[in-house]
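Intended use. Records like the one below are meant for learning the mapping from a protein sequence to its folded structure. Do not use them to infer anything beyond what is encoded.
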Amino acid sequence: MRNLTLAVDERLIEEGRKYAREHHTSLNALIRDLLARVVRERRTDWVADCVKEMDAAHGRSRGKTWKREDLYRA
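Structure written out for the chain above:
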């Protein structure tokens, strides 16, 4: 694995370290994982996964219909 040097605001680094600690990981692992997600995952894969999850949910509307403006009030 190769090293990479980044220029990052000190406050962001501290906030990142705190977040990493709270999630039982290191800042290095957090950045590596986030970069891998962004680079390797495709948006279309994410959309397909969401549709798959919605199809599997078997929600029950009990005949209720929705209008677009109803969704903004939720």
